[in-house]
Amino acid sequence: MNNDQLKVIPINTKAKLVSINHEPTLCVIKAQKLYEFDENTYAKLAGCDFHNGTIEVQVLSQLLPDAPDFARGFIGLAFRINEDDSAFESFYIRPTNGQTTDPVRKQHAVQYFSYPKYNFEYFRTHHITDFEGPANIALNQWIDLRAEIKDETGKFYLNDRLALKVDHLKHGASPRGTIGFFVDIGTKGFFKNLQITPAD
Questions:
Q1: What is the β-pairing status of strands 132-133 and 153-158?
Q2: What pTM did the predictor assign?
Q3: Which end of the chain is more exposed for a tag (fewer CB within 10 A), N or C?
Q4: CA nearest 198: which of 57, 55, 81?
Q5: pLDDT band at 69, cuts 50/70/90?
């Protein structure tokens, strides 16, 4: 799918096509200053019905000038989004945590969550560490993100390196739905070169 043919529906975001180095690129910013994390804040593809397969996209994250201190450049993908945006799976990255010298933050560079119940706060409150991990990433650089989804399993790669594997996606094997370009608090996110390869 060519970026200049993307048709997206902003959900709690503002989205527009821009040109970076003469390449059509989708820019997504969270529309409201909501201070809840891991919400349905994405621009979703119109006319997409995804279940199993591979999603590939290049992402670049910048901090907004008014980003709060706890902003991390949150950017990633939502997938299997249902029609009313009340349930989906997501994988995103925190680029500022990729280069930090703080050993705790360093372990929180990548994140899986399942909306609405299983957000990062739920996992940390319950001392569940399976859904986060480290990654060598940073702000203001293009990062190749690839999600390989098969039934209940999700494998997530950054620059062709496996960053996180989830063996039991929280919504199970059967849901299907569209794909979204996810951002969170304080992020100006850029997405280009989307490729979707369905497996069923």
A1: unpaired
A2: 0.94
A3: C
A4: 55
A5: confident
